[in-house]
Amino acid sequence: MMQDDKTGKLFTEFPPVSTPEWEQVIQKDLKGADYAKKLIWTSPAGIQVKPYYRSEDLDQLVNSEFNPMKFSFDRSNPGQGNSWLIRQDIRVADPLQAGERALYLISMGVQAIGFLFEEPLTAEEVSQLLKDLPLEEVEFSFEGSEPAQILAVLREMAASGKVDPLKIKGSCEWDMLGDFSLYGSF
Questions:
Q1: Residue 1 has pLDDT above 50, yes or no
Q2: Rounded to the nearest 5°, which phi and psi values hold at 107?
């Protein structure tokens, strides 16, 4: 593999190939068969899908520079009832690391976090996990830990004025019957 030190491009010893030259070779390989009928197919949405794309095809894309969920909403549909959130699950082994990971993911655009617990946390561990999180801005779900610990910490945070309980969104998911089956008590 050769790399040109000036441009940083790989394989500079090969000359560039234009789209017409590329399609000429394809046509030769097809032995006269119709390129469009053999290699282009139509998706269920009615889009003509080619067997390959080149950089000049990107120039024809409309609105590719716009981000979804940002004004002018050209690549999403929030006004039509699209209330989906971007969610990321985090397995919690260490509450501090899980909280830091959640903050990083939120900074990258995640709108909902699911914490998955291998073991139930103590109230102190729940406090460590939640202490720096924007509980009023992001939806949080807790799976695999007893909700009593989590709710107790949230109640304490609300009583101290750290969070507005009316602005917190999320869920505490606990399989009470599964725990009863495994441990013989609630």
A1: no
A2: -65, -20
